[in-house]
Amino acid sequence: MAIHGSQGMLNIRRQSKPSHEYAVPRYRVTLVREGRATAPVSPLLTSVAVADVLRPLFAGLDREQFLVCGLDAKNCIIGINVVSIGSLTLAIVHPREVFKPLILMNAAGWICRVRMRSFDRILP
Fold first, then answer.
1. pTM for the whole thing?
2. Domains in the chain, please, with CATH?
């Protein structure tokens, strides 16, 4: 808005509105099933049970991988997501990529596991 003075009188000239209003984009986030595997029927209550279930997923890998497993309220696996595939000695992981699939699968709990170069280690 511009205000101009002319002999004690004010003339107000308004700026015209833009021809289009700013539109906010809308997004839809979905979870896509990539495959199926048989999950154990019993709940995962110990780290040994988790290692036994997840060890076959890491067999023969030459790089680090970071996985998250979503658990239901009874600690049974409802989904597994590969968060990061790294190099020989490094896998970059950001919390955003860890929690996004867990939220989409409505997980009540979760387990994260990294396959390291020369040994397996379960992170608490």
1. 0.63
2. 2-122 (3.40.140)
